[in-house]
Amino acid sequence: MHAAAVRCRIRLMQPEDIPQVLDIERQSFRSMWPQTIYQRELKNKTARYLVACEPFDEEPPVEPPPEQPASPGVRRLVRRFFGGLPAKHTASERVLGMVGLWCMMGEGHIVTIAVRPECRRQGIAEVLLVAALEAAVEAGQDEVTLEYRASNHAARALYEKYGFTQVGVRARYYSDNQEDAVLMTTPPLRSSAFRQLLDRRRARLRARWGDADPLAGLAAAPAEVAPSG
Fold first, then answer.
1. Residue 65 domain-assigned?
2. Count of domains observed in the chain
3. Is pLDDT at 82 greater than 80 in this prediction?
4. Which CATH number characterizes residue 131's domain?
5. Is 159 a catalytic residue?
6. pLDDT tens sequence across 31-49
7. 33, 86, 148, 183 — which has fewest CB within 10 A?
8. pTM exceeds 0.85, yes or no
9. 158 is in which domain, residue-wise?
10. Is 93 a catalytic residue?
């Protein structure tokens, strides 16, 4: 299915998204145990969790729990990138994928990124990656790191499109099959070269998604950025 057929938007993860997010996590990381305690992670001031979602065709019958107020810092982040907090979030949205970012001492780390199996190969993972990179820039991070299974060539190809390069290997990192984890990192996020790369990639995403672009509310990158360091 072409990306334009997906009615998708990026927003902050909310507590009522947790059951769907856990379902995606179970399908994507079958060897993972225990699962992420998202109730705690959503209160973590160093973390940013975002979801890609689309409307359900019909309203579900279950009334959602009341929305938790966002902190001033989170509100500023969302206003900058997504044009303001969404009006009242309801369970009428289906979560297609999620990304988690930790921001600590100048280094952003993508701790998870996953998409529902039936929604893959539609560009959703790339949109989530861009949203995480922009969130890291907004949080003042110097670089972003992540790791992936050595056999996941599709993940590596995606990360390399956004300037990630290999910086190490964690031998036998994954407990289910003793597979290595490959460590990757971005160039300095505030460098002109990286911002120009991100601008080019975002322009291609806008052309691909057209009016359905999930990143339409993201703030434009500055034309000139002083190199970091």
1. no
2. 1
3. no
4. 3.40.630.30
5. yes
6. 776 778 999 999 999 999 9
7. 33
8. no
9. 3-59+70-210
10. no
